[in-house]
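Example 3.2
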Amino acid sequence: MSANSDPGVVCVYGDSEEMGRPSPDNPPVEPQYVHKVALHPPSPPQTPATLPPKGRNCRRLAVTAAVSALLLLLVAGILLGYHLSSVCFGVRCEDDVCLLHSQWCDGVADCPGGEDEATCFRVFGSGFLLQIYRSEDRSWKPVCSEGWTTNLGQTACQRIGYSLDRSITNRYTSARSGQMKINASNGFPQVKTGSSPDTNILKLFINSNNCSSGSGVTLRCVDCGTRVTSASSRTAKEQPAILGAWPWHALLTSSVTCSGTIISPYWIVTAASCVQTDSSPQAWKVFAGVVNTWTTAFHDGFQVSHILAHEAFQANTGRNNIALMRLTKPLVMTSNIRPVCLTNVGLDFKASRRCWTTGFGSTELKHGGSEFLMEAEVTLLDPAACRDLPGSDGASARDGVCAGTPGAVEKPCEVDLGGPLVTEEDSVWWLIGDRSWAYGCVSGIPAAYGNVTFYLQWLYEQMQKYPDEEQHKDEGQYVFEFE
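Structure, written as tokens:
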């Protein structure tokens, strides 16, 4: 082997093999080994990933689902609690206090304003049947006459809202109890024997399945709805009224002139739209027992201590158009000055009923009104008759009634606000409405009245606030609110 030979290289040519150089007799052939560079070298072998056991994965899913369910239940509980906190399953007071039904009319004032004990007595129907609300079965029940006394009648009248001024001794203001046959299948409130006279009147009664007398108590807190003089005529045409024909009509004067209706020696019902013009009680004078305006120059009139208009009265729509005036001193009742009866619960007067309206509105196309008290017979109309009257805005709703004489020629041109709409039932005159709107002298167009029956509870609630003048220390207080 030559000294220049490279021992690390071996070349192969055919069958010959020689170290260091090729054979001249054999040309080179394709080498058996050819080195090539790989453009994408292969990845190293991968070790398979180790998967968690199947049971552990299920446990994780179960825990996640349970946590999610608990969170949903928590959110739902919070929302339900918020909803339930705003829902009253009993009876809600005006101050948003929620009472159980059993706390209503139980003889204990639980509402901050005492309204839970304010409307527990009522008089029903044309027979003036006295009823008490019983929370045990949430119903009104007639009072059994057994054990009933005159003093209990006076107390019940005061609870309803009537003042029993002891300084007035005539018969028009005394509470009168009577009896009428009743048949109540669900029991009667009956006076307990041996009760103390100082006990709250609502605690004096027990529920009884039987009333051995078979009679219920009737109660008239004021001698209302009667008159000595009959109406002048029975025609649809308006004409001057005779003195005493409508003894409950009152003339109200300030910078404007309105009408009102006497419902007790202290209280006058009128329209809120009347008193909004002059809101100060001192600005008003009330004249009773007059049928012409010029006689007011010879009388001082009665002063007004309080004006209470419905808190939801809307001047632009005429809704809730009712108000009360309280006199500083009570009216002295005579044959020409008497109250009309507020419509008791259970009296439902329908369309086509004959009614009468009175007022000092003018009957011709001129201003200034009439100097005489005018009377006219009108008819209660179907609510649809007033639904689209200009300016009536819902006079046909449950808070309003509509009356007129279709085809009549003469109608009041100037609205005599607050005047009464009355009807007779069982020889008693009842106040149905107070005039709140009329449409000029147009023939045959009816007038809208506030539905006094709808506002019966509101009226009694206001009367309860001022039971007698001795309890007032704020003479001339102005109680009047508008939306």
